[in-house]
Design the sequence.
């Protein structure tokens, strides 16, 4: 065990692989010293496990209606009670983890690379490319995200796929800004010049050397953005423009429970706790990651 | 957002008046470009709607000739750029189209509903500043304490609690259970329409009318939605205040003041707090603009007859003229507030001039 640790924290790694693993090990170690980050990581781990093993964790079929068991309060049989169609809320919340995880993953997969490419291109080439790309980015950044997402969904039509597209459209500009700032900082550094002198094309310089250096700040930014993405998706679901029934999406579930909030409080509140917990988890982890990977940027975001 | 723009290298050559003129010009150009961008986005959204606007007018059994004529009349046969220009012309002259849900011009509807949102958001930001700033200062002055951790969690909750959920729970607890506040709507039903709208702000209108009963009732209804909204600005403002204060408290002049024996309370409020007032204005401006966005969800919950509610109803009816009109107005106000706080920052901070 000690030898593995020594190998990982070796100051003069013998291979890039060793250096990379060593860096990963150090980041991991630093994260483990931040209690909030650990809590966040655990919450997200639980979310992922819940999504993966939903059929085993859920106690009931999330879609099965039992009209004889409508609006039952939380009990041993139904941990979070039942909704207006007699469906078990706990099981629906558990299956909802899949939807939430799918939404945040897809938005990240769509928006982060798009923002990364645009930002790196703007930062690396500068001049007119920079001015045009950043002009567009700034216009998007100066508009309210939720309103823009709402308008896009209204145009594309309700549904979870369109909600994901709309959220991705409103999220990329933040990533483009981060990537551009990062690119600017090392675009004139010696190692980039060295690669260029060796005859590498700009595509190769960017893909092989600039992009990888942007990843850590991108990871921080994406993690910090996750809470906002979850809230927007839930908001779209709540209004009725996101996930459609009978999908057990948390925002849509709150919307269904709205009519019963005064007498059957659990129908609307339970999915809300799930949203808060998961969003907080991403916030905690994002804060911790930022302290480790990107200490300069401080609290400001 | 708080970094001052780099001083121009030719500063010595130009006279200050001339420089100010050019920076104002540059500002207006960016503002114009941003507004055009906003218009381009709403125009684009209007074009990707899968509903064919011509079919909506003529019906799907109209002969091709009729279809083509209506298409020409609506200007849809012209190149996109020309369509965009006439769209911009329409918007500038206040022609946002007609809302299907109300049958009135969208601009009239928006003028009617906007004051309700403004009233709620303004009270929200006041609450956010009054509570958020002291919380941030306290957290920074006791860094690492339990109080600080607690305030930090409150700050993060502002990013994690869905606004609609907070509104629902607030309604269930404070209205239904404790009966401390009024329910949905701006006033009780039997007060509805009693005060003639002059400003559209019911608090102001009831004072003008001298009707204190309605004023009290309106406050009673306003306090919960405004608090829910205020919570989000509180969280953000407290977080930013804390980080600004920490920056200041680590400066040498603060140490000097402490060494001199200045009482800690004075060190914090007189020495450390003063310089952060200007960046805080930017934060408050951003937060105020953000509340307009947050009000969409809160208004839906509280049946608040503001722009957010109008937008949601329009969204559910796929009433695109109303959706795009609301988007434009909220976007324009958002950009406007951001730019104003930007200007205020430059005017108030001598280093940024």
Sequence:
């Amino acid at each position: 065990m000690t030898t593995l640790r020594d190998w990982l924290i070796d100051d003069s790694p013998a291979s890039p692989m060793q250096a990379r693993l060593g860096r990963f090990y150090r980041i991991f170690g630093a994260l483990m010293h931040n209690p909030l980050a650990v809590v966040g990581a655990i919450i997200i781990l639980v979310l992922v496990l819940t999504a993966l093993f939903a059929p085993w964790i859920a106690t009931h079929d999330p879609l099965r209606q039992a009209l004889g068991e409508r609006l039952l309060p939380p009990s041993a049989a139904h941990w979070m009670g039942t909704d207006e169609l007699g469906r078990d809320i706990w099981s629906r919340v558990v299956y909802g983890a899949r939807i939430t995880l799918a939404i945040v993953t897809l938005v990240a997969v769509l928006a982060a690379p798009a923002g990364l490419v645009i930002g790196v291109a703007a930062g690396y080439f500068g001049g007119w490319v920079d001015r045009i790309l950043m002009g567009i980015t700034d216009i998007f950044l100066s508009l309210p995200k939720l309103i823009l997402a709402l308008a896009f969904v209204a145009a594309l039509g309700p549904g979870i796929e369109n909600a994901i597209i709309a959220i991705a459209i409103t999220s990329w500009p933040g990533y483009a800004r981060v990537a551009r700032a990062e690119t600017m900082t090392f675009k004139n550094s010696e190692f980039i010049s060295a690669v260029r002198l060796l005859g590498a094309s700009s595509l190769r310089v960017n893909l092989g050397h600039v992009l990888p250096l942007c990843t850590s700040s991108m990871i921080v930014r994406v993690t910090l953005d996750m809470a906002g993405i979850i809230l927007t998706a839930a908001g779209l679901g709540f209004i009725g423009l996101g996930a459609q029934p009978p999908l057990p999406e948390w925002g849509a579930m709150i919307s269904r429970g709205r009519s019963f909030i005064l007498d059957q409080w659990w129908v609307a509140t339970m999915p809300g706790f799930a949203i808060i917990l998961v969003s907080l988890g991403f916030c905690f982890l994002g804060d911790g990651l930022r302290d480790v990977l990107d200490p300069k940027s401080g609290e400001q975001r | 957002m708080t970094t001052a723009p780099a001083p121009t290298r030719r500063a010595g050559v130009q006279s200050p008046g001339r420089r100010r003129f050019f920076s104002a010009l540059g500002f207006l150009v960016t503002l114009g470009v941003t507004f055009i961008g906003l218009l381009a986005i709403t125009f684009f959204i209007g074009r990707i709607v899968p509903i064919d606007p011509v079919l909506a007018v003529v019906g799907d059994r109209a002969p091709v000739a009729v279809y083509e004529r209506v298409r020409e009349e609506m200007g849809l046969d012209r190149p996109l750029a020309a369509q965009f220009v006439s769209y911009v012309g329409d918007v500038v002259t206040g022609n946002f189209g007609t809302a299907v849900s109300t049958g009135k011009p969208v601009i009239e509807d928006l003028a009617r509903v906007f004051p309700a949102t403004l009233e709620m958001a303004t009270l929200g930001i006041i609450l956010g500043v009054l509570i958020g700033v002291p919380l941030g200062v306290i957290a920074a002055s006791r860094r690492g304490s339990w109080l600080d951790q607690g305030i930090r969690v409150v700050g993060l909750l502002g990013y994690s609690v869905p606004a609609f959920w907070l509104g629902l729970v607030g309604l269930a607890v404070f209205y239904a259970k404790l009966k401390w506040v009024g329910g949905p709507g701006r006033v009780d039903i039997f007060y509805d329409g009693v005060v003639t709208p002059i400003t559209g702000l019911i608090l102001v209108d009831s004072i003008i009318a001298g009707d204190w009963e309605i004023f009290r009732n309106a406050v009673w209804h306003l306090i919960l939605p405004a608090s829910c909204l205020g919570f989000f600005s509180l969280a953000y403002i407290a977080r930013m205040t804390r980080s600004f204060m920490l920056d200041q408290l680590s400066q040498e002049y603060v140490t000097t003041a402490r060494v001199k024996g200045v009482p800690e309370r004075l060190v914090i409020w007189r020495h450390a707090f003063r310089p952060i007032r200007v960046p805080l204005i930017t934060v408050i401006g951003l937060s105020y603009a953000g509340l307009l966005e947050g009000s969409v969800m809160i208004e839906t919950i509280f049946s608040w007859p503001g722009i957010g509610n109008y937008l949601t109803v329009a969204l559910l009816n796929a009433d695109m003229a109303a959706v795009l009109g609301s988007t434009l107005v909220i976007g324009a106000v958002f950009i406007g507030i951001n730019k104003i706080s930007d200007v205020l920052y430059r005017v108030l901070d001598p280093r940024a001039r």
Observations:
- Chain A touches chain B through 49 residues (CB under 8 Å).
- The domain at 90-301 of chain A is CATH 1.10.3720.10 (MetI-like fold).
- Chain A has a mean pLDDT of 86.
- Chain A is about 75% helix and 0% strand.
